[in-house]
Write the structure tokens for this entry.
Amino acid sequence: MSFDVQDITMDIEAAIPLGLIINEILSNAYKHAFPDNRPGSILISLKEQADDSELCLIVCDDGIGLPKSFDLEQCKTMGIQIVIILVKQIEGKLTIICEQGTTVKIIFSRA
């Protein structure tokens, strides 16, 4: 696992949901992205956006990726639902990209 994280201060109302989001995404990656002990890597990035009013969290892996038919709006798994609820709690925007693994990107306001 590797990290690309800026030194960022945030309030507890954003920090706790963000930690839970990262935990859920990492749990899913370890469970599903690397079957049969397949080697791989995960990157966690947290950076300020250009105007400093928003932050961007990216968690990406180079695992097997999600099925081509994956649709975030139709997905009803508990893990994804937890992430969606927590992203709404921090008033963020969630994007999942399924190319050469899986990338989860969340942009949210600096509180």
